[in-house]
Request: fold
Amino acid sequence: MQSVYEKIGGAATIQKIVEAFYPRVQAHPELKHLFPEDLTETMEKQFLFLSQFFGGPPIYTEKRGHPRLRARHLPFPIYPKTAEAWLACMASALQEVGMDEKVREEMWDRLVMTAYHMINQEHE
Reply:
C-alpha cells in the first residue's frame, strides 16, 4: 500500500506545503509570536517531520532524534485556539498546494489529531 508521502509526490510536495504554510503562520496573530523571525530552521524541521510523519524516509529521526512532539512543544503555551489557528493555516496551505481530495482528507485527519494532541494549556 502506498504511503501518503508517495501519494502526494514525495519531498517536492512536502516542500510546497511547508513553503505555503509558514507565510500564513507569520501573518497569523495567534501564531506569529510563537515562531522565530527567521524561519529557515523551523521550515527545515517541519519538512523533515512531515516527510517522516506521512510515510516518507525517517529523516527527522535520523537528523534530530525521536520527534517527541508534545515534549518538544511544552515550552510554548498551546491553547485550543492555537491549535485551531495552526490548523487554519495548514488547511489553507494544503488547499494552495492542491492534491487529490481523498489524500488531503487522509492527511487532514492525522494533522487534526496531532494539533489537538499538542494542546498543553486550557485557558489563557
Q: What stands out?
A: The mean pLDDT is 95. The chain is about 65% helix and 0% strand. The CA atoms of residues 104 and 112 lie 12 Å apart. Residues 4-117 form a domain with the Globin-like fold (CATH 1.10.490.10).
